[in-house]
Design goal:
globular; five-stranded mixed sheet; alpha+beta
Length: 365
Amino acid sequence: MQVHAELLASTLHPEPRHESVTLSQADWIELSDELRALLDLEPNTVLRVTYLDDEQDTVTINCQQDLNEALSSNPEPLRLQVSVPPTVSHHSGIGRAGDQVPQARFVAHLSVPDGTHCAAGSEFVKSWRVRNTGPCGWPAGARLIHVGGSRLDGDCQVPVPALLPNQETDISVTLTAPEESGHYVSYWRLASALPRERRYGQRIWLQIQVPPQDGSAGTSTCESEHTQVVCRQCGGERCIVGVRWRGRLGQDNLCESHYGQLETDLQTKYDRVVGSHPRTLAHLCKSPLRTSVERLVQRFDEDQGMVDELLHILEPIFFQIPRPLMDAALAVVRPFLDAMAIVDDRPKLSQLRHKLHAMVGSICT
């Protein structure tokens, strides 16, 4: 794993400089030791390690979970800024509370678990438990604010208490589910009072599913569109999105939903066709699975259908898993991809593919 670090000026190194660090794995302790060595610091010296997230907010890394979140939401190599806080002694590691940055960490979902089905237009209350994991209290006037993802009607900010270090609190927002069916993920974060707003701590999220009001299967969220190919049963001019079932004996094409309504003997007369997934491939190539995916693409260089099928299986991870959990989800599927890159036996390959499909289904529900 590659990390680019901007080492800011310190008493030992008056001029800032840029360095690259290569790690055997995404390990916070190993990274901290490498950074201290670059700065010629004592082993226990306190460092301030930060990065810019996708909202251009400065986020501090203090532990392994912070590093995992940084890697899951940023393309490799991760770009860090590293400094020694000016109030920190190189030997004692003690700083003044007035110069310390507030921190917060997600503890638990108290209501509306991930994937909860909410009726269109219904009101619900989402509650989280969070902990002050920093060295100082949260500032007076702090708020929880919406920072990204789906913007649902209802609260866009709520007040939070000035929590002391190591204390926990419960925070709730009242929201309304959208009228349109689909999958929705909304991100929230703590911030100081206006007008000098400063965001801090780990982002938290909510994830809901709004089912179609008519009870149908709803619109596919698959990126693969079969241009100018229309489902015989759906009619109209809308092309098939997702899996296409092509009649082997001259029958018209069917979408996944209408294919599933056929009798078993009729289903045998159709072939499954999966289109390309360029956005999913791009997401994977920016993720910790990049090396595994590159090996698979090389392995199936002459079988684009297999590559498309694997991308179709992996696609739900990128629109159903909240970003803070993405790294853990990708780690679960990595062994399947690595095994498929070296297995030559077709039955074993098919078995691995079915197991991968089942695993993705289980972590996305």
